[in-house]
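[Q] Does anyone have a clean structure-token version of this?
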Amino acid sequence: MSKENENWLEAVYTAKTEAELEKGYDDWAEAYDQDLMRYGYRLPLLSAGLVARHVRDLNGPILDAGCGTGLIGENLQALSYGHLEGLDLSEQMLAVAKSKGAYKALYKMRLGDPLKLPDAHYSAVVSMGTFTVGHAGPEGFDELVRITRPNGHLIISIRTDINPNNPHLDRLNEIEAEGRLKRVETSREIVTMPWEDASVRNTVYVFSRPA
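[A] Here you go.
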């Protein structure tokens, strides 16, 4: 991996402000897919498998929240899911995602802000590698629940190697205790980038929104 690419990875995980994070991803967008494939990045394929297991409607709208360059959309399109939408903070990442032709709509939005998306609309919301250090905070979950339709699913990865008192997981547990989500599957903890940094680990949680 080049020194420049190492700097991009460091930039997004050490960003102190939203502007720094957005610039980090904008600068990385062109090389992002190649780098993540070189790292052995596992989350896009894992998320596609979990969508295939739990989401039966191939034509219902699915939101890729934090879609980046569209790696998840490519996999879901290959599995014949026909209505994919995505949102991301980075304009340049969205441009790469658009070029792949997998998404019917793409939005420049920040997780944690009110989302200009309809209530109870999506059959599934998928968010991989986004609720992690220096990225989306746990305050973003409530909006994702709001836009998921009853009996729809939220499939969310949480980075689990950083903080044993994980605020992201704590918030999901609170929402579940309130009766607004029901956990239906938890993956094993996985090494997310085994060929780059084996210390980075995630667990993927599948929730349904009760009717």
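[Q] Thanks! Anything notable?
[A] The radius of gyration is 16 Å.
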